[in-house]
Write a structure and sequence with these properties.
By secondary structure, this protein is mainly α. It contains 16 helices and two strands. Helix content is about 70%, strand content about 0%.
Length: about 300
Amino acid sequence: MSTKHYTKILTHEVNSALDAATQFASNCPNRLREAIRYSLLAPGKRLRPILVLTASELCREPKGRLHAAEYRLNALPAACAVEMIHAYSLIHDDLPAMDDDDLRRGQPTCHRKFDEATAILAGDALLAQAFEMIGSLSPLELAGRCCKELAFAAGACQLVGGQTEDMLREKMITEVESTVQAMERVHHRKTGALMRVSLKLGGMIAGASEQQLTALDEYGKHFGLAFQITDDLLDVLGEEAIVGKRLRKDAKKEKWSYPHFLGIERAKQAAEKAVSDAEQALSVFAHEVQPLQALRDLVRQLPSRVR
């Protein structure tokens, strides 16, 4: 099976689960329900939930996911939880007080479609529901460990901290850092934190060894870096109709970016290096199976988006 077909199957499963999870009871206000579903179910790559499911399958091998009841009981709710955290962060990042964007995933941002107050509340609700999903994992000891990992990744020292430093930028550079080092420190948290925890949750659910969890985390660190560099390059070289969001805005807002500090060619080289490092991290998985090939292909295809 090709990776494209493999990820298409996983994406369909995630979309179905997200749809089912947001069929709220009648006491949820209609406007809030509409705003949540509008943002969460918007067309997207579902990259983070795919990382959860693929890591879980990889660490379950050779048993295989289709023969394991735990897959649907645990891996799929965890995949939905990280996508909810991601969607909440995008809703809030797009607000006028933050990045002030009006296009996301090819459609008006949540606060443009509805209003700022509704967008804030939709993000709040998604954050809460993510932990409701994680709380459904079984056994309870696993749910508790996964909840702790996701909360840390989404919190003040990771996702939210990275967004804060991105807003403050130059003020957060220490005496011993270069600007590029400071930028990487921001993006390892703002972009990389959810990718790393997605892989870790998948591994934990499958009962991965410490060696496997370390390898997945290392892969996630380099994957996140390759993803961010590619995203920065797309802002310069991409097409809005394909990317699905406003481009050429980093330079206008004087935002930190890899092309700005490194130039286009060196930024491309940095992305290729991150891809190579991510692939190397997977070397501990000796058996050649579909999930392993999918992880390789997912990171390999990132630089090709800007060629």
